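Table S2 (continued). Query chain:
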Amino acid sequence: MELYVTRHGQTDWNVLNKVLGRTDIPLNKTGIKQAHDLADTLRYAYFDHIFTSPYSRAKTTGEIVAESKEMKVETLDWLMECDFGEFEGTSRTSEVYQAAKHEVFKRYPGGESFLDIAARVYPGLMKLKEDYPDKCILLVTHGGICRMIRSYFEDLGNDEFIDYSIGNCEVLHYTF
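Corresponding output:
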């Protein structure tokens, strides 16, 4: 199976460097342009399916790519971003958030841990492999989920995992 993974286009909270998980913030003007640029980048790629997170920023990004290919998107709940609990909407640079982010086995207060995310993302990937073994799939999701998908395919040290970041509409490719 061929798997392409991308993060949604830019939102206003991305610009403000706010923690963005379960709040359904739409793409901003730049994010819409990034999604169109992504569609252009992927113009020669063939996909059997395009799956997105149910949040509008990912779904809109996926729909722009899908429209260019005369396809429809399907949503998968396991692609939704981490629940950051009490940190939702706070500054990503705050010392308290950064300290909590490094506690990989602990849940964010009122939210999920990285283990919780792995517990939904890893089985989701295995189900895709089982259901679509010879297909080419595009996943449109969020930064934290892209991090977890990368950890499925590559061994990452703790710091490498924590520090990993993917740009808006950056594309990753995996084969399995």
